[in-house]
Amino acid sequence: MSFVTALETRRSQYALTDASPISDQEIADLVKKVVVDVPSAFNSQPQRAVVLFGDASQKLWDIVKETLRKVVNDEEAFKSTEAKIDSFAAGHGTVLFYDDEDVTKQLQENIPAYAANFPGFARDAAGMLQLAVWTALAEKGLGASLQHYNPLIDEAVAAEFGLPKSWKLQAQMPFGVVAQPAGPVEKQPADDRVKVFGL
């Protein structure tokens, strides 16, 4: 599969099963490989990831549900929220994406001329990692979506998994075999979004 075809394969898939065409070890190794290979400004490598399987993944979504239950007062409204969370929990696992803020702070101290830019550079690195992992999972036959329940769940998740305080949660990616493929989406024409000169 070519890189561009893999990008086309990557979609926001919400209906997932707990099956996987590859082993958990292969998934973990895949995420590790991508984390190492995805670039970052000044080769600072602020990207971090946590891969959750089985009970660990379920615990994450239990935390999300428990946290949101405290802020959604309308029980009827919470039912749709609960159904959505349950659909994420039904997947095979979850990848959590983090930014190590200590890396950015150190860069700001070492290179003060760029201090204001480093948080943006870290966000760029985080986005590249998320897309790369998402695409790599799709290439292996796994569907996924990108969720953002941070910062509401940050403290509880860090405590549950014993994560460093400097790691700031960026996104959550439930994954699994797709039970029902996502439907077509409307995309703006490339010529409206890309300008080419000198061709």
From TrEMBL:
Claim: rRNA processing is one of the keywords in the record: no
GO biological process: cellular response to oxidative stress
Major site of localization recorded for this protein: cytoplasm
InterPro entries: Frm2/Hbn1, Nitroreductase, Nitroreductase-like
One Pfam family, short name: Nitroreductase
Subcellular location: Cytoplasm
Residue ranges the record marks as coiled coil: none
Entry's Gene Ontology molecular function annotations: oxidoreductase activity
Keyword Iron: no
Domain Nitroreductase: 8-176
Cross-referenced PANTHER family: FATTY ACID REPRESSION MUTANT PROTEIN 2-RELATED (PTHR43035:SF1)
Name of the protein: Nitroreductase
Organism annotation: Bifidobacterium parmae
